[in-house]
Amino acid sequence: MSTFGDALKLARRSAGKKLRDTSTVANVSLSYMSDIESGYRNPPEPEIVAGLEAYLGVASGSLEALAAEIRKRRPTDIAQTIKGNTKLSELFFRVRDLPEEEIKKIIDQLDDEE
């Protein structure tokens, strides 16, 4: 299995569950769940992954192990991505000192545009 999204999709299909139902159980949007399975987004938080494991009937910790490995790589991936993109670097330096609530508003706005 190459990615968390691939493993999640395989587990969901093997369990005979629909993407919409799975997203509802996980309490995330359908588009977010689809993006995870497609590899466009990183795995969700551990609590959500644990709920997905239970709902899909997969061994406890199996999906979380994949998710944790991706989370460990995330800081390095982020740093390399920012370093290689001047506009992204500029954005980072402009938002890094904003209050958490302001950052959340920006993220919510970006999610709404998708």
Topology:
Blueprint: H1 4-14, H2 19-26, H3 30-38, H4 46-56, H5 62-83, H6 86-95, H7 100-113
Describe the structure.
The chain is mainly alpha-helical and 114 residues long. The chain folds into two domains: 4-73, 434 Repressor (Amino-terminal Domain); 84-114. 75% of the residues lie in helices and 0% in strands. The protein contains seven helices and no strands. It has helices at 4-14, 19-26, 30-38, 46-56, 62-83, 86-95, 100-113. α4 (46-56) packs antiparallel against α5 (62-83). It is globular and about 45 Å long. The chain starts with a helix and ends with a helix.
Tell me the number of strands.
0
CATH class of the largest domain: Mainly Alpha
First-residue to last-residue Cα separation: 28 Å
Rough outline: globular
CATH topology value of the largest domain:
434 Repressor (Amino-terminal Domain)
Q: Helices and strands, in N-to-C order?
A: HHHHHHH
Helix content: over 70%
Corresponding CATH superfamily of the largest domain: lambda repressor-like DNA-binding domains
Q: What class, by secondary structure content?
A: mainly alpha
Question: How many helices does DSSP assign?
Answer: 7
What low-confidence regions span 5 or more consecutive residues with pLDDT below 50? none
Major sheet description: none
The amount of beta strand, in percent, is under 5%
Mean pLDDT: 90
CATH architecture of the largest domain: Orthogonal Bundle
Give the tally of structural domains. Answer: 2
Integer-rounded radius of gyration: 16 Å
